[in-house]
Amino acid sequence: MFSLFRKKEKPFQLEDLEGHALKPGDKVLSLRYDLGECVIVGKEQSIEYESLKTGELVHYAKMIDAASGRQKVRKISG
Question: Which residues contact 56 (CB under 8 A, 6 or more apart)?
Fold first, then answer.
């Protein structure tokens, strides 16, 4: 009966600052935490950025830009 009033969940989608879709395996340039170039790693319950320079892992939630809601990264094409 009350299913008419439920919010429909949007599928979870990561986007870089320019709005390009991101997925595990993509290379990005991090704009936070001095990570440099990173690769997106999909874990069982989360998504993380792994720095190619230091091997440091940062959870995607720490990379959210407050103004836009997008990730503070730029996708590296190629």
Answer: 33, 35, 50
Strand 73-75, strand 27-30: pairing: antiparallel
Q: In this structure, what are the phi and psi dihedrals at residue 71, rounded to the nearest 5 degrees?
A: -80, 145
The rounded percent of the chain whose pLDDT value lies above 70 is 90
Each domain of the chain, given as residue ranges in start order, spans 11-75
Pairing type for strands 57-59 and 47-51 reads antiparallel
Per the DSSP assignment, residues forming a β-bridge with 41 are 48
Task: Kindly indicate the confidence band of residue 3, based on its pLDDT and cuts at 50, 70 and 90.
Answer: low
Q: 10 Å Cβ neighbour count for 8?
A: 4
What is the model's pTM?
A: 0.80
37 forms beta bridges with: 29
Q: Is 74 helix (H, G, I), strand (E, B) or coil?
A: strand
